[in-house]
Amino acid sequence: xxxxxxxxxxxxRQQGYFTSQQAEVCGIARSNFxxxxxxxxxxxxxxGIYRLARYPVTDRSExxxxxxxxxxxxxxxxxxxxxxxxLDIHELSDVMPSxxxxxxxxxxxxxxxxxxxxxxxxxxxxxSDRETWQGYQVTTPLRTMIDVxxxxxxxxxxxxxxxxxxxxxxxxxxxxxxxxxxxxxxxxRDWYLNEHKIQKRN
Length: 202
Known about the structure:
Elements: H1 3-12, E1 17-19, H2 20-25, H3 33-38, E2 42-46, E3 49-52, H4 62-69, E4 80-81, H5 83-90, E5 100-104, E6 118-122, E7 130-132, E8 137-139, H6 141-151, H7 156-169, H8 174-179, H9 183-195
């Protein structure tokens, strides 16, 4: 596979985006980057992040862009979309976040200032707490519910709606709510059981 095809394969997994490191790994010299941008083949999106100009426009491509922004020195994205943004991604409730919420490792650091539209949460996420979508990661519906409940900013009505939406869509299971060791989540579980006249098992 030639360098151009290798780069397309990488970008295709990331909704058209790629980093300078990824382009170099594919065999494209950094000295050629400026020419590819001037020719219109690439579009520079952020420092060290590009997009194939002719790649079809995708829905919510900004989720990939800012995921790549969170990469470490080795080029590995550190951020996982979470909290209200994860609710939005999973289409749970009608909540409309004013910022993009991302969970990053406790030691996460960037040399540049954090963009104002990003809200960072610092925590260590287990693999079981996150899912991989096209070019980015997002917390699971269960982990998302726990996060927004602990954050305490979203109204209880939105949380109830999110739980109902999740169970209806099959991305949240009553068994998950039963086994999750979280007092507040159990309160919402009991509300759901009572609302739908389901007998409590424990």
